[in-house]
Amino acid sequence: MDFFDRFAIPHPSPVIYAAMVAITLTVIAIVAGITYTKKWGYLWREWLTTVDHKRIGMMYLVSALLMLFRGGADAIMMRAQTALPENTLLDSQHYNEIFTTHGVVMIIFMAMAFIMALMNFVVPLQIGARDVAFPRLNALSFWLYFWGAMLFNISFVIGGSPDAGWTSYFPLAGNEFSQSVGTNYYMIAIQIAGLGTLITGINFIVTILKMRAPGMTLMKMPMFTWSALITNLIIAFAFPVLTVALAMGTMDRLFGTNFFTTTNGGMDMLWANLFWVWGHPEVYILILPAFGIYSEIIPTFARRNLYGYKSMVASIVLISVLSFVVWVHHFFTMGQGAMVNSIFSITTMAIAIPTGIKIFNWLFTLWKGKITITVPMLYSIGFIPIFTIGGVTGVMLGMSAADYQYHNTMFLVAHFHLVIIPGVVFAMLAGLTYWWPKMFGFMLNERIGKWAFWFISIGTCVAFFPMFISGLDGQARRMYTYSEATGFGIWNMLSFAGALMLAAGFVLIVYNIYYSTRYASRDISSDPWDARSLEWATHTPVPDYNFAITPQVDSSEAFWDSKKNGHTLYKGKYKEIHMPSNSGVPFIMSAIFFVFGFAMVFSIWILAIVALLGIFACLIHRSFEQDHGYHIPVEEIKETEETLGGAKQ
Amino acid sequence: MKTDHTQPLEYSTEQNNLNILGFWIFLGAEIMLFGTLFASYFTLVDRTGGGPSGAEIFEITPVMFETFLLLTSSFTIGLGVHAMRLLNKKATLVFFGITLLLGLAFLGFEVFEFFTYVEEGAALQTSAFTSILLTTLGTHGAHVTFGLFWGIAIMMQIKQRGLTPETANKSFIFSLYWHFLDVVWIFIFSFVYLKGMM
């Protein structure tokens, strides 16, 4: 039985047993449901093997929403535990696991996936392309992410979750202080998902550089595409650093190497440096697409073109460069000299300049605009003040001398949630609502959406503003309980109330999706917001081939020009369209990656080797496969165009 | 698929162009990967714990052989791509074959070198220095090993299908990969071995 002991949970609790039962029942229900409705074939043909960027985007979206609720459940448990002094809802070990998985799930598996969802769906449409450059690699990216996320998520019922924080600092994350397999899960699951992200990075750089519609020069790209290009460049250059750091951490834990140990010359600070050399650019991987989304939504609902296009582009580029030279500000207190700290303080504060430029550009776009307040617009307007509060407190944290006071307190927690929530979550919800009609062919209910917005924005303020105060009073982050005498009780109780409001907001969003799916009108035009860029120039639902005729572009708002200024988007006749064929290999190969990861986590070497051979077999299969895709004949294009409401030309 | 006959075969279709650009960006990511390994190497090089230092274990003879073999293989794969552009299938295959044999010989020396290190008490677990040394060399070696299998697969396809836009594209991309490994080796040779022996 020794072999099976390793799969046991080191710190079991009734909650975890309940979760095990719930997971088992859910899986059985899903399998039974699909079998009963005879949907396996449909699922395999239309989704699991698809290489269509729109469907991959939708699958990212569903995964991101699921992960949002997983990470959100962790958050509620954390806030509930700390709501009262000396609370015993969770023990310290369980609390450690929850703040670790909350961070990882929200950053790597929720925010990243949400961004990938919108990028996948929108970018090829915005540049007038038929698909991405490498459709099959795109499917591989998604499935690697998906199986990586699954591997990470089974940790809490098999073997125990990681508990060393989402930053997993060594030596805490080393074998000596983290004996359970939890941190193995962290190292390997993120590695697998990270591989998918890197592939997406390369894929989208090539797509955006090479597949734009005729006439769309770089300086005529819509702002979301610009932000996607720069984001993917950051991905391609930052993720390899994480790959190496995670590989070293894995080797330290599994093979007894001495990279980050405290003996035999190992250097724990090397992990901190490598982690944040990736980790800080990662922050901008999250925020730049969000900036891009706001830059699409604000002009649409202010009825004005984006103010300061060139300075917007310049500031994105500048932010991406600066993002690689600020990493030390995450550990000012951890032993560098005053000189190094000062340099990184200055680079950190310098980021406020391009960010400020962007804020002013959005404000000037609104200035004298004919503003309509829709749900996407509400999020965009709500973002500006809340994000600015989060950003300005970031400048406070960036002053290295003052940071000794703020470091590792709730003040920091308040800061980064107040940039990430309005920055990323608001943007994703805004983008979701904005592009929803293009994705699914109906609009989300505005009334429920507005209620959700108010719950989420007020909830954010109520949950995180009190942390500034308790943090300045000395409450450390990641502290599972505190005594009544500290006086932190009231602030934590307020935070808990805010967290509940946020939760209510997210429930409303799900209810809105349900409600709108049932009741919303399907009779909408292909351009319901009267928008400006190319994704609105094709039909809803978008046909497989996106555009029957490749659009011609001569400004950054070609679609707007075609509506208002007599620009002709579609010239020429229908031609046969070449399409990539579906493939099951990405799904199968990623599932084998999951097996490989699982075997590595538990040091089952034979299984790991077999899985590795399976991965190579998939690669060899791909190498020898001859796949020239297929062609959609002109007749079929004509037919599709007519059923979708007339030829767009 | 449209074919542009004014271009060399490997650039002749739209998809081929995308593949080549994508691979260049992948090589950019690889530079970051090896750059991170080198940065870690320089950080940990003097942290030998109780184990040996580079000067105590490095030997110039096998390293010179490895360098000679790998640099020559970069030259022969260049000839292979040249033969491919002249549409000489047989010469292409011969030069690719020589390249892979040289790569295999390189790996033989490297494996021998690793065994020697372990015998001399410089195993993966000995110290931070030996961990990063063997990881850096091992990552390069793993790339060469992967390249061998990849190269064999491409040669088999050229043999079966001839020099088509697809096989030419694959061969050209493989040559980029192989040259890149050579560049990495030059850095390893200069900054790991030569610097370590000085």
TrEMBL record, chain A:
InterPro entries: Cyt_c_oxase-like_su1_dom (IPR023616), Cyt_c_oxase-like_su1_sf (IPR036927), Cyt_C_Oxase_1 (IPR000883), Cyt_c_Oxase_su1_BS (IPR023615), QoxB (IPR014233). It is a multi-pass membrane protein. Pathway: Energy metabolism; oxidative phosphorylation. Signal peptide: none annotated. It comes from the Bacteria. Gene3D superfamilies: 1.10.287.70, Cytochrome c oxidase-like, subunit I domain. The keyword Transmembrane applies. Its cofactor is ferriheme a; Cu cation. Keywords: Cell membrane, Copper, Electron transport, Heme, Hydrogen ion transport, Ion transport, Iron, Membrane, Metal-binding, Oxidoreductase, Respiratory chain, Transmembrane, Transmembrane helix, Transport. Its EC number is 1.10.3.-. Heme A3. GO terms for biological process: electron transport coupled proton transport; oxidative phosphorylation; respiratory electron transport chain. GO terms for molecular function: copper ion binding; cytochrome-c oxidase activity; heme binding; oxidoreductase activity, acting on diphenols and related substances as donors, oxygen as acceptor. Residues 38-554 form the Cytochrome oxidase subunit I profile domain. Belongs to the heme-copper respiratory oxidase family. Catalyzes quinol oxidation with the concomitant reduction of oxygen to water. This is Quinol oxidase subunit 1. It comes from Sediminibacillus albus.
TrEMBL record, chain B:
InterPro entries: Cyt_c/ubiquinol_Oxase_su3, Cyt_c_oxidase-like_su3, Cyt_c_oxidase_su3-like_sf, Cyt_c_oxidase_su3_a-hlx, QoxC. It is found in: Cell membrane. Residues 1-197 form the Heme-copper oxidase subunit III family profile domain. Gene3D superfamilies: Cytochrome c oxidase, subunit III, four-helix bundle. It is an enzyme of class 1 (oxidoreductase). Its main location: membrane. Keywords: Cell membrane, Membrane, Oxidoreductase, Transmembrane, Transmembrane helix. The chain crosses the membrane at residues 21-43, 63-81, 93-112, 132-155, 176-194. Signal peptide: none annotated. GO terms for cellular component: plasma membrane. Its EC number is 1.10.3.-. Catalyzes quinol oxidation with the concomitant reduction of oxygen to water. Belongs to the cytochrome c oxidase subunit 3 family. This is Quinol oxidase subunit 3.
